[in-house]
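Task: sequence design from structure.
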């Protein structure tokens, strides 16, 4: 017979056997009707029965048939022991779900290609290493030079990161709404290899200075606000009071915000002209390039440095050109590289968690195997080989693992679906997380290893047992496996304690770091503060008109009951960070590296912003309504800038030169952490918004005595009365900005804490099961000790001492391993050393408490035994 036929017969054998049995019964019935004895008829048909068995062996693949029988037996055992099966499926399912979910995120951010054409050739071209946007970005002239002269770069494009959330007003189509508009160069979408879902992208004419106003819509905005209406193509949207023609719609697969600015959405895209006017604005572009065939990141970086050096040498005396220090890396490294280490740590943590699951289940299977030694001995006595016994046990563990994996995949699908819908996150590409084929393949691999690991020890133990000894031992105590395998169970418990010690130490260090970050004062108070983007720049042409508009808006908001103060700024903390070149006017640029001064962060604020944000004024005065364009140019600086420009001197009254003007320092404020709470402060300066119009958009911050949810409706109504055309639906709380900056650290700490808590529960169950099993099967020994005078306290102490020994062995293994892991976590810690004594002592105390709690119930049970009952115990 063909192999396929024999394979198919495995699943047809029940039907075939049934047909043969029916035929034999028919022959027996016929013989009885002819007057023969039924027993004689059956003996006469014995050869036919033998033929049935031999025919069955020929018709099927023997090992596959044995596999089928073993699987059926495994499922019967699962149904028979429903409590154990439910527990096993639950812990395997949770472990598999954690592994699959973390791997899906790891795969999306670090393994799966970016959703662009030939993503391996895309590079990010930064300007230096500073986190300051003005230092990272580049002038137009450098982009044009790279585009014209570079051979290593086949194409260069850019977007301007100096846009704000909700910086464009949409009117004329129902309720006014604030949109986020991202300026991009003509070749931006072409370089990424993106094709429009509808329409086209920008033309060269539209990307000229003062060219026709056009806009490309994100797919999300098109579907949400315009209901996917294709007739919008060629029609105009009113953005900031001016019509802009809709020329195209991006595909749903491209989410600019999720890729380049996680946590911030992008609604529409507008052209950024590569003109001399834009070049004079300074560093405005974030560059992306595509490598030429055969080029490498290193060769592109070398060539870009040569071009930058030549342009710097050729700079004319009166030409305003900023420094360009090209630093090139792959686009993948730029987008998700900073999360690589944290994700690797998480993947390792779920690996430790899966080992805990395996150790726990292996221990439980060992306990259950002791009750099955007589069954296995009988199987061996009637001819089952050691290989068959091992196969049976591994199939049972594999069946449990596979069933748990199905539950785990369902949970992982739910978790990844929730992650993909998480909008307020600082992690890129999270929207694209899904349980794809690679994640399923990874799950299958983990499942196979899990089934093998937790089933191997019980299988080997039962296979090594001698049938005669097991039957004799079973005669004495059919439920007890004797001393055989006790060391294996204890070793597994010690391994569980060691693994959970590592997880607790890692999570403890990260939680301690997270709380240290929360203790950092950001330089402002975020409690009960809300912010709303307002933008009079397009409606009012003069600075006086803008100031009058601000006065009307602020007057209306301050009149709302419960509002304590309201102020204006062009950039909120923990948001955009840009700087201007600055130096001591008296020193003529002698301060700073190369005599070119510093690049502190710059903020435009009104006279009440410091009060609304509660930024302390340390010396001098704050701005007043009298600081206008007609008065002396003044400035506030923080202590960091004061120390850098005038170390050891009083900065008040000093003249600081920036943006072509001399400004007198009238006050010194406390530094604000603008990048992240765990990052140090930077030199910063504040200019009066009434004195300069050098800003694009403005945020109004409102502090109230009430929670934001209760004050926002009143503020919204007051703003609508003051300016009916002002969009008032995009309120943000300052606490949301703080939480957004803390998201990666918080999520890491929470996940590791959850893994450690799960592992701690498993270790507790492991200790309890081993000690309880030991007490249950030492009843006779306990009875003898009680008969010889042992008190209940002595028995409790003995059992707890046994528990302590197991925990101590695990701790002795786990502490050195924890030190290695803690050292590897150093880059993720904040103001906590990897040898933090509080964490290690806390872990040891927790493990001691857990071990004591796990051993207490068996110890109490042992101390309450009746001596006579214990002596009679089998």
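Answer:
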């Amino acid at each position: 017979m063909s192999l396929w036929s024999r394979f198919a017969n495995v699943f047809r054998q029940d039907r075939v056997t049934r047909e043969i049995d029916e035929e034999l019964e028919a022959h027996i019935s016929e013989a009885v009707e002819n007057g023969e004895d039924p027993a004689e008829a059956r003996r006469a048909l014995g050869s036919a029965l033998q033929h049935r068995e031999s025919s069955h062996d020929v018709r099927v693949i023997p090992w596959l048939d044995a596999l089928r029988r073993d699987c059926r037996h495994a499922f019967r055992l699962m149904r028979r022991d429903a409590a154990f099966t439910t527990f096993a499926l639950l812990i395997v399912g949770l472990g598999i779900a954690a592994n699959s979910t973390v791997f899906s995120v790891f795969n999306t951010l670090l393994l799966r290609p970016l959703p662009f054409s030939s993503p391996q050739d895309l590079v990010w071209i930064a300007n230096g290493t500073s986190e300051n946007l003005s230092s990272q970005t580049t002038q137009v002239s450098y982009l044009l030079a790279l585009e014209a002269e570079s051979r290593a770069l086949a194409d260069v494009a850019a977007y301007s990161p100096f846009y704000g959330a909700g910086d464009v007003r949409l009117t004329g189509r129902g309720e006014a709404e604030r949109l986020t508009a991202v300026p991009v160069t003509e070749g931006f979408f072409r370089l990424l290899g993106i094709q429009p879902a509808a329409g086209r992208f920008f033309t060269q004419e539209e990307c000229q200075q003062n060219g026709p106003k056009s806009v490309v819509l994100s797919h999300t905005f098109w579907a949400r606000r315009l209901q996917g209406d294709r007739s919008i193509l060629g029609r105009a949207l009113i953005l900031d009071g001016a019509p802009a023609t809709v020329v195209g719609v991006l595909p749903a697969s491209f989410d600019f915000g999720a890729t380049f600015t996680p946590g911030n959405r992008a609604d529409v895209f507008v052209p950024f002209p590569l003109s001399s006017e834009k070049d004079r604005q300074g560093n405005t572009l974030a560059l992306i390039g595509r490598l030429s065939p055969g080029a490498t990141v290193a060769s592109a970086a070398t060539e870009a440095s040569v071009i930058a050096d030549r342009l710097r040498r050729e700079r004319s005396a009166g030409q305003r050109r900023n420094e360009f220090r090209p630093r090139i890396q792959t686009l993948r490294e730029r987008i998700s590289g900073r999360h690589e280490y944290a994700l690797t740590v998480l993947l390792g943590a779920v690996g430790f968690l899966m080992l805990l699951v395996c150790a726990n289940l292996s221990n439980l299977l060992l306990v259950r195997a002791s009750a099955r030694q007589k069954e296995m001995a009988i199987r061996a006595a009637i001819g089952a080989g050691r290989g068959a016994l091992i196969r049976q046990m591994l199939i049972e563990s594999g069946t449990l693992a596979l069933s748990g994996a199905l539950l785990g995949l369902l949970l992982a699908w739910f978790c990844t679906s929730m992650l993909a819908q998480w909008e307020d996150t600082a992690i890129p590409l999270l929207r694209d997380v899904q349980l794809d084929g690679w994640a399923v393949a990874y799950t299958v691999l983990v499942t196979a290893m899990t089934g093998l690991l937790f089933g191997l020890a019980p299988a080997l133990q039962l296979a090594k047992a001698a049938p005669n000894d097991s039957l004799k031992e079973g005669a004495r105590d059919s439920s007890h496996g004797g001393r055989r395998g006790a060391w294996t169970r204890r070793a597994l418990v010690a391994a569980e304690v060691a693994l959970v010690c590592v997880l607790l130490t890692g999570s403890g260090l990260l939680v301690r770091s997270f709380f240290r970050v929360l203790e950092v004062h950001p330089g402002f108070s975020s409690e009960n503060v809300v912010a709303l983007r307002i933008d009079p720049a397009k409606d009012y042409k003069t600075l006086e008109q803008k100031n009058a508009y601000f006065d009307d808006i602020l007057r209306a908001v301050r009149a709302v009951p419960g509002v304590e103060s309201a102020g204006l700024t062009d950039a909120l903390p923990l948001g955009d960070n840009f700087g201007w070149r600055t130096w001591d006017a008296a020193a003529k640029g002698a301060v700073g590296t190369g005599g070119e001064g510093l690049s502190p962060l710059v903020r435009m604020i009104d006279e009440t912003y410091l009060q609304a944000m509660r930024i302390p004024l340390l010396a001098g005065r704050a701005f007043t309504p009298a600081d206008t364009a007609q008065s002396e140019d003044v400035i506030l600086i923080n202590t960091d800038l004061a120390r850098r420009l005038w170390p050891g001197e009083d900065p008040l009254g000093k003249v600081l030169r920036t943006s072509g003007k001399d400004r007198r320092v009238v006050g010194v404020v406390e530094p604000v952490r603008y990048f992240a709470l765990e990052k140090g402060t930077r030199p910063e300066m504040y200019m009066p918004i009434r004195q300069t119009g050098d800003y694009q958009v403005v945020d109004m911050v409102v502090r109230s005595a009430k929670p934001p949810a209760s004050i926002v409706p009143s503020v919204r109504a007051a703003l609508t009365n003051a300016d009916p055309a002002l969009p008032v639906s995009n309120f943000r709380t300052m606490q949301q900005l703080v939480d957004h900056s803390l998201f990666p650290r918080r999520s890491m700490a929470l996940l590791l804490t959850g893994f450690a808590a799960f592992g701690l529960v498993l270790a507790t169950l492991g200790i309890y099961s081993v000690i309880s099993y030991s007490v249950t099967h030492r009843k006779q020994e306990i009875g003898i000790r009680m008969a010889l005078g042992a008190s209940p306290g002595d028995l409790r102490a003995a059992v707890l001492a046994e528990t302590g020994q197991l925990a101590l062995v695990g701790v002795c293994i786990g502490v050195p391993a924890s030190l290695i892991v803690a050292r590897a976590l150093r880059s993720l810690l904040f103001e906590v050393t990897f040898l933090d004594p509080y964490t290690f002592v806390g872990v040891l105390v927790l493990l001691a408490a857990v071990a004591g709690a796990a051993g207490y119930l068996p110890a109490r049970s042992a101390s309450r035994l009746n001596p006579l009952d214990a002596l009679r115990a089998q």
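The longest strand covers residues 661-669.
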